[in-house]
Specification:
This protein is 51% helix and 10% strand. With 493 residues, the chain is of the alpha+beta class. Strands 1, 4, 6 and 7 form a four-stranded antiparallel beta sheet that branches. The chain has a two-stranded antiparallel ribbon with strand order 2-3. Helix 3 packs antiparallel against helix 7.
Length: 493
């Protein structure tokens, strides 16, 4: 039970240095890795065992994941990673051995855990208040942006209508001159900046606004309390889970197809900035509205539309060789609450792990239910590649590219455990030949695309990919050999 105290105390504490993440490292001492003898190296099983204990004693349950690394010989080491918590305090709901009473909660002191004091109650209360107020502040800001955009559209439509009228032959004959238009601004209320904006605005600006507005529409739907997309469902019911995912896919389809079309056809990158802004609008957490029951999988599955758009961009970008817009989009930051988690957008894929039960309800006994669903949802985009080559190969290459992007995000200044993003490539036996061929003859830009040096990135992939294999599943896909298969562009003949 000491572990429950340690995990909950870290979850109840805030640490700006590590962006509120916490770590319990095992198999190591200060400055030295010693390993643990004969330790079970199945990270998912260890994760499940810890979750079971936390569910028994702590509410709300802290969010954790486990990373295990092999050590020479029959030893291992790793870490339990405790994620930032928006649901403090995490309280003991069951006592044990008379030491910890029901209702107790702990925080992390300078060198050890301790029971919460008055200052901790005040800190948690103020934090929770900010979390409740932040969505209102964000909605107000969004409404201001929408109002500004509506005013711009109104001015544009009115200006164009009056310009057409003043340029007509009847108006010219009536006025006897073409100079009447110079007084148009004063007569209609359009000021000089508005008239200049309408005259100088490029034709593609309206389409860029449409992309951004579509992101606003989708975000409003995802965070609305009265949305037809529910905040609480029975995740054991496969048909209910299917209906929920269908709703997300339907609502995100416009943005998904638009993103893929921009990557495929926008050679001049006229709409790249608009697409980045659209993704930035969606790149946020979605807190359960006040009064709604807390359902963590349904809360986190609201990242699914954003993940679909990102993967559509990744798959299409690799296929069409568009490194600039890929880099711009992956550099979009993911926001949580009042601050921004300093990792690239690809890290959002990891958050879907907390909604895994929804996908498993539909794809029972499947090793990678989330990857299966992503591939299925993107079939309309993949279909256009059938005439060129196998669409499954296209998907695997794009998925692997995104897996490395996820690993890159976890190897930056703020490291969250070096693991690649999971996917079908781990289990599909065809992935080994497809991805080794890709690495043996990568696009010219691939060598220097990632911010982490490519050999270091691929080496880290080889070391950690196997840790993602689920218990009772065989990792028949591509889990090692990336560095060996890689052939830099300058070595091609």
């Amino acid at each position: 039970m000491e572990l429950c105290e340690d995990i909950s105390s870290i979850a109840n504490s805030d640490d700006i240095k590590f962006d509120d993440y916490g770590y319990l490292i095992f198999g190591a001492e200060r400055g030295n890795i010693i390993g643990i003898q004969n330790m079970h190296t199945d990270g998912e099983k260890l994760h499940t065992d810890i979750e079971h204990v936390l569910n028994t004693y702590i509410s709300p349950k802290p969010q954790i994941y486990v990373v295990i690394y092999d050590f020479p010989g029959p030893k291992s080491w790793g870490a339990i990673v405790i994620e930032p918590s928006p649901n403090q305090p995490h309280v003991f709901v069951k006592e044990y051995t008379g030491k910890v009473q029901r209702g107790d909660w702990f925080v992390r002191g300078i060198s050890s855990k301790e029971r919460a004091g008055p200052a901790d109650y005040q800190r948690v209360f103020e934090k929770r208040t900010r979390q409740l107020v932040e969505p209102l502040r964000t909605q107000l800001q969004d409404q201001r942006l929408r109002l500004s955009d509506l005013e711009s559209k109104y001015e544009s439509a009115l200006f164009q209508a009056l310009t057409r009228a003043l340029n007509s032959e009847d108006t010219r004959r009536l006025n006897g001159t073409e100079n009447t238009i110079y007084g148009l601004g004063d007569a209609t209320g359009l000021d000089l900046p508005a008239r200049l904006r309408q005259r100088l605005r490029k034709p593609e600006d309206s389409l860029a606004r449409d992309i951004i507005e579509e992101a606003f529409r989708l975000r409003t739907l995802l965070e609305a309390e009265d949305s037809y997309i529910p905040w609480d469902i029975d995740i054991r019911n496969a048909s209910t889970c299917e209906e929920l995912l269908n709703s997300f896919e339907k609502e995100a389809s416009t943005l998904i197809n638009s993103a893929a079309e921009i990557i495929a056809s926008d050679a001049s990158n006229a709409y790249g900035d608009a697409l980045c802004k659209a993704l930035s609008i969606l790149a946020k957490s979605y807190s359960v509205p006040i009064g709604q029951p807390i359902n963590q999988p349904v809360e986190y599955v609201r990242h699914y539309p954003l993940v679909l758009v990102i993967y559509a961009v990744g798959i299409s970008g690799v296929f069409h060789n568009q490194p600039k817009i890929l880099r711009d989009i992956l550099d979009v930051r993911y926001r949580v609450g009042q601050k921004e988690i300093p990792v690239e957008l690809a890290a959002v894929r990891f958050s879907l792990a907390y909604a895994d039960d929804i996908f498993k309800s539909i794809y029972r006994n499947k090793c990678e239910p989330i990857g299966l669903r992503i591939e299925s949802a993107l079939q309309p985009i993949l279909a256009e590649y059938y005439t060129y080559e196998n669409a499954q190969d296209v998907f695997l290459r794009g998925e692997f590219f995104m897996a490395l992007a996820g690993l890159e995000a976890r190897m930056g200044e703020y490291s969250f455990g070096r693991i690649p993003a999971p996917g079908l490539y781990l289990y599909d036996f065809r992935a080994t030949s497809v991805l080794k061929a890709f690495l043996n003859n990568p696009p010219d830009w691939f060598d220097t695309f990632y911010k982490v040096e490519i050999h270091e990135l691929l080496s880290s992939f080889d070391e950690t990919a196997k840790s993602l294999i689920r218990a009772s599943c065989d990792g028949d896909g591509f889990t090692t050999g990336a560095l060996e298969a890689f052939k830099p562009s300058k070595q091609k003949t």
